[in-house]
Amino acid sequence: MNITLKYEKPDVLPSYGDITIAFVATSEYHIEPLEQGLGGLLLREVPIERPYTVDYDAEKGRGPERWLNRWDLRNWCVVSAYNEQEERIGGAVLAYDTPGVHFLEDRTDIAGLWDLRVKPIFRGQGVGKAIMEKAVEWARSKECKQLKIETQSNNVAACRFYAQQGAHLGTIERYAYEDKPHLARLNWYIDL
């Protein structure tokens, strides 16, 4: 497949958000502390008895278009992927040096992969990998030392994908989501 990748400004977020981020959770990682955590943490993949659809955009206050009014996006970038018909088929949103975005850890040497999505019919065809390569290129252009990526313990496919792209699991936050205590936040890092 022939893909064209472009860096775009955040004003494209409304059309970027037309691509669904939804996925079906069929398994999840259970975090098992060894020796009360002193022996480390074990991630064990467990099938979900009743698979369910996760759609972050459907949650209150979430979604690309809403980000325009929530943060100062001057240091953000959208990596957009287009097919031969110039149809948007995927992309990623990157954040850098943005006060109030705790995900960036108050660091100016880290970029964050805020969001990545590919149209379902194009998933598994190398679009995500191409987007990731362009995202890494952008983070390097900002002289960042790392690209940070957040996933949840019910997004096993994303965890595997980021690991294949060279990311390593940096932190596990077992109690990150007050409204979803069974989920953990998994923070991945790509050293640049």
UniProtKB/TrEMBL annotation:
Keyword vocabulary terms for this entry: Acyltransferase, Transferase
Domain (N-acetyltransferase) ranges: 41-192
Pfam families assigned: Acetyltransf_1 (PF00583)
Protein name: GNAT family N-acetyltransferase
Source lineage: Bacteria, Bacillati, Bacillota, Bacilli, Bacillales
Domain of life: Bacteria
Nucleus recorded as keyword: no
InterPro entries given in the database record: Acyl_CoA_acyltransferase (IPR016181), Bact_Acetyltransf (IPR050832), GNAT_dom (IPR000182), Streptothricin_AcTrfase (IPR008125)
GO molecular function, one term: acyltransferase activity, transferring groups other than amino-acyl groups
